[in-house]
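>> received
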Amino acid sequence: MKTTARKTNTKITPVRGRRGSIHRSVVERVAMDILNGQYRSGDALPNEVDLGAHLGVGRSSIREAMRVLSDKGMIEVRPRTGARVTDKKLWRRLDPDVVGWLLAAGPDKDFLFHLIEARRIFEPAAAECAAKRATNADLAAIEKALGEMNQAWPESLETCVEADLAFHRAVLNAAGNPILEEFEIVIDAALRAAFTLSTTMSQSYAKTMKSHGEVLDAIRMKDPPRAKSAMAALLDVAAKDLGVSEAPDLTK
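>> returned
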C-alpha cells in the first residue's frame, strides 16, 4: 500500500525492550506521529511490513498497535485497504493514554477550554450535592487532600497536582452519585494539563488554595448554594491560569 506519510527530519530509532514494552512503545510512536502531523486525518498508514521495518519491530507488534489505536478511535482498520487516520472528532479524548499523548504533543486552546467547560457543567453541581449528602468520612477525605496540597506546596508541584486530584475526587464521592464519580477522568486530564502547560501556576496557587478551602468549608457547613458558587469560583481560577477563560471561535 502506498503511504501518505509526510517527510520529516526525525531520525528513526528502532523500538527495543521486552514484549509488553515494545507493544507500548510502538503504540506511542505511531500515536505521536499522528498527533505531530506526520499522518493526518484520512491518511493511510504504511502497511504492516513497511511500518514494522520503519520502527524496527515485527508484524505482531504492529498488529497489536493497530488494534489499540483503533480501540481509541484514532485509526480505522479495514480489510484490504489497511489502516487510516480518523477525524479527531472520533477519538476517545478522555482515554487516559490519548489525554497523555495530547498533552505531550501540546494540546490546543480549544481542547483546554472544553475540559474546563465540562468541569463547569458538573463540578459545581457535585459540590452542591456534597453539601447535602457528605458524611463525616467524606469530609475527612476532602480535608485530608487539602492538607496534602498545603503540605506539598511549594516543594513539589507534582505532589500538589496529585493531592488536588484527590480533593476533587473526594468531592465527587461525597456527592453520593456514582455516575458523577465517572467524571474523575475529566478532572484528571484538566489538572495534568495545568501542571504540564501553565506558566503561572506558582503565582496563582495561593489563590487556588484559598478557593479549595472555601469549597470544603461550604460543604462542611452544609450550605449547597455556597458550595456550588465556591466550586465555580475555583474553576474560574483554573481557566484563567490556563488562559482559556474565553470560548474558542468555532466558526474558524
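>> The CA atoms of residues 128 and 240 lie 23 Å apart.
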